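Entry 0007
Protein: Competence protein CoiA nuclease-like domain-containing protein
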Amino acid sequence: MPFTAQHAEHGRLDATQPDLGCGVSWETIHRARAPLHCPACDGRMVARVSVLGLPHFAHRRRTPDCPLAGESAGHLLLKSDLAAAARAAGWDALLEAAAPHGAWWADVLALAPDGRRFALEAQLSPITEAGVRDRTQRYAADEVQVCWFDDRERPRPWMAAVPSLHLTESAGGPRAVRGVVARYTADDGWTAAEGIPLHDAVTWILEGRLVQHEERYVYGAGDSGDAYRGPFWTAPHYAAAAGAESARRQALRDAETARHQRERGRGRRGRRRTKYC
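Output (structure tokens):
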């Protein structure tokens, strides 16, 4: 169930935008015999509304080889939420955007005013770690950053291998981040920040105000409040503060080690002088 279709007269239509991205109302397309084609496979399409109330497009005939065919309602909804979050951050968002050379097909391609590109991937279907790494590397080869999103009950194993966020399911309200976003202080170490809205998290990631980091422990993560170890998101200044504190403590340990070595050296010299007196 894609959000985009190609119109013979109006060009590319985006069902997530009020004017379909080209100054045309949904009413003029929905239930009309509009000349619509799939931007991926060029198959004939029709305008529909899902059981969740989402306007979208559908192929007239079964097209199992089309990359936009067979999407679930949950995947459609998550793509819509990601596009809305990118637009709320002040970026343009292209739904179902393909690379000119065909190496990748982004669920949402966020475009910054300065030309930077960031892919937001709703990944609800099964995928291997090797598969998600390969797709991430294909984005990187074109200087496109990427973050992967999932809203299943438990985070997938591959989520530790690539930049990703685990989200709450959509239950009629705004989504929030389930994955770990952490703050740092020298006194308390790393502690998880709870209940961050999806729109805020996407804005911070796009603006570089959240970066991936890995530390030994993050306390208060998850429903149980247990310690968490693995990659997480944090602000660059927290990562810098943690690095500075780690360096300070290492310097103290090195100084203490050097002091013990000097004391042992003086003790050995004292024992030698006593022996030969």
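Curator remark: The longest strand covers residues 211-218. Residues 181-273 form one domain.
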